[in-house]
Every structure is written in C-alpha cells, then in structure tokens.
Amino acid sequence: MKRLQGKVALVTGAGRGIGAAIATAFAREGAAVVLAELDVETAQRTAADIAAQTGGKTLAVQTDVTQSASVQRAVSEGENAFGPVDVLVNNAGINVFCDPLTMTDDDWRRCFAVDLDGVWNGCRAVLPGMVERGAGSIVNIASTHSFKIIPGCFPYPVAKHGVIGLTRALGIEYAPRNVRVNAIAPGYIETQLTRDWWDGQADPAAAKQATLDLQPMGRIGKPEEVAMTAVFLASDEAPFINASCITVDGGRSALYHD
C-alpha cells in the first residue's frame, strides 16, 4: 500500500522547486494533491505533469498566502474536489536579504507577509477541520536560517526563526487532538532560485564551486530529498513526531567551522 493512500494534501508554493517535488512525491505515494500557488499557470502545468507521471489526482488553485481569505478559498476548493485536507505543507516562501539599517519598511513587511504570516494563514485555514476530525499533519518548510545566521541575509532568518516558534507552539497546542505540526529545515538545495543566484554572480562557476566547497558531503541537496522527508512526516509512519524540526542539509549546520 502506498504511504499516503487515501489522504488529501495541500502544498503551498507547489509550482516549482521544493514545493513541486513535494507535490510529486505525495501524488506518487497515493495522495490527492492541491497545488496552491500564486502563479496559477505554473501550478497548472506542474499539476498536469504530476498527474501524467503518477496517475494521481491533482488540482491547481491560485493562492496568495499573504491573504488569509485566499488560503481559505484554496482549502475549500481542495475539499470540494477531494474531501477534507489531511496534510498541509506550508512551503511558499521568498528570500529577502537586506542590510538591516538600509532595509525599507516594505522589505520587512514583504518578508514576514510571505515567510511567517503565510505559514500561519495556512495553519489557520486547516486546523479547525483537523481538530474536529482528531487527525492531521502540518509540515512547515523552515530553513537552516531558522537557527543559523549568515551576515547579509536579514530579515529572512528572523522570519524563519518565527516559523520554528509557530511550529512548536501549534504542535503543543493541538497535540491532545492528534494534530501534529512539524518543520523541515533545508540547507542548500539545488532549486531554480539557487541556480539563479549562481548565474547572477560575476563568475557563476566559481560561485557554484564555493557553495559546494562548504558542504561536508561535497554536494548540495536535491528537492526530492526534502520531499521524501515531507512524505515521512505526513504519513502514519511518524505518529509520535510532533513540534519537531528535521534538518536536511548534509550535516552543514553541525560543522563548527570551515
């Protein structure tokens, strides 16, 4: 039997990168998947690709995670199509890296609106149903920025620290109702955003090599490696894992110094 057979999952930011990998892995493991994505055309293409690859049920819904009504609408559309949401993955996020003293108020608000408020909006939309049914799994995609600081990345790590706090608080709050809330903290993962950053440097090949040189395993992660961790947390294989964070970074955050 597939690991998520019969479950309904909603994944935010599922049009590409880690979110698309999670949606694909969930469908392959038997879940019906709602791809909640700001760029709905990208989500529709990804949903069609996933359905073709896996034979699974998929639905793309235009969703702005900064707007609670938009997230609630995505949940409602998913439930109308497939039934109650068993699993939520709050994956949507943006990188906002600024100098603290020159950062604008808009930069600060934009970072928190997506990276922290967006996670809460997702949780708030699915929790009532999960609590009522006495079952559910929420997986928040945090970051190694949630507990490590890289200069020049403010205020992104502040928001990601908040995601860990939110995960722990909600996990404890709803543990008596059998609703689990966990996080995954990816390190360097080879997504399009990572490749775009390398390509934007003066010497893209050197920038990529510098990133690889930081890694204990000599490589960075793949979106699929984050996705399989999400499958585990979403499945019935992890019934006693709650209010926790699993780090997926090849050991980088355990390294004391280079």
Q: Which terms would index this structure?
A:
258 residues; alpha/beta; Rossmann fold; 7-stranded parallel sheet
Give a verbal description of the structure.
With 258 residues, the protein is α/β, with parallel strands linked by helices. The protein has a single domain (8-189, 222-254), classed as NAD(P)-binding Rossmann-like Domain (Rossmann fold), CATH 3.40.50.720. It has helices at 17-28, 40-54, 68-82, 105-115, 117-133, 156-174, 192-199, 204-213, 223-234, and strands spanning 8-12, 32-37, 58-62, 87-90, 97-98, 136-141, 154-155, 179-186, 245-248. Strands 3-2-1-4-6-8-9 form a 7-stranded parallel beta sheet, sandwiched between helices. A two-stranded antiparallel ribbon has the order 5-7. Helix 1 (17-28) links the parallel strand 1 and strand 2. Helix 7 (192-199) crosses helix 8 (204-213). The relative contact order is 0.14. The model has no long low-confidence stretch (mean pLDDT 97).
The profile of the biggest β sheet is: 7 strands, parallel
Radius of gyration: 18 Å
* Mass-distribution shape: globular
At the fourth level of CATH, the homologous superfamily is NAD(P)-binding Rossmann-like Domain
Report the CATH architecture: 3-Layer(aba) Sandwich
Number of domains: 1
Q: How far apart are the termini?
A: 44 Å
The mean pLDDT is: 97
Name of the CATH first level? Alpha Beta
H/I helix tally: 9
What class do helices, strands and sheet pairing give?
A: alpha/beta
Give unreliable regions as ranges.
none
Q: Write the CATH fold name.
A: Rossmann fold
Strand arrangement, largest sheet? Answer: 3-2-1-4-6-8-9
E-strand count? 9
